[in-house]
Amino acid sequence: MKRDMLEACVFATVLCGFFGIILKRNLVMKIISMDVMSTGVIAYYVLIASRNGLFTPILSNANRGNYADPVPQAVILTAIVIGFSIQALMLVGVMKLARDNPTLETHEIERNNAP
Question: Which of 47, 48, 40 minimizes the C-alpha distance to 17?
Fold first, then answer.
């Protein structure tokens, strides 16, 4: 029951980000929506990888039993770093675009730059 509720929340987060990308016209809002969607996807991956009875692979003298696989954790950390760098690159692109256009609205930019 609790896991189903978490999956529903994560799925709602992904949908909020997806519809934000489609429906928002401001470029900064699109980037923020992409971040929300990325966060939802990462949370879903973490939710799937989590299981009861597994411990984090940290060295200690205590024998705790089964350890969780550290590879998904490393993949998620890599995804977070790559997502952050992509957002930074997109924000730099938006800043350069803002120099030439007085607005960040996509339809205004398309109208101003149409041949």
Answer: 40
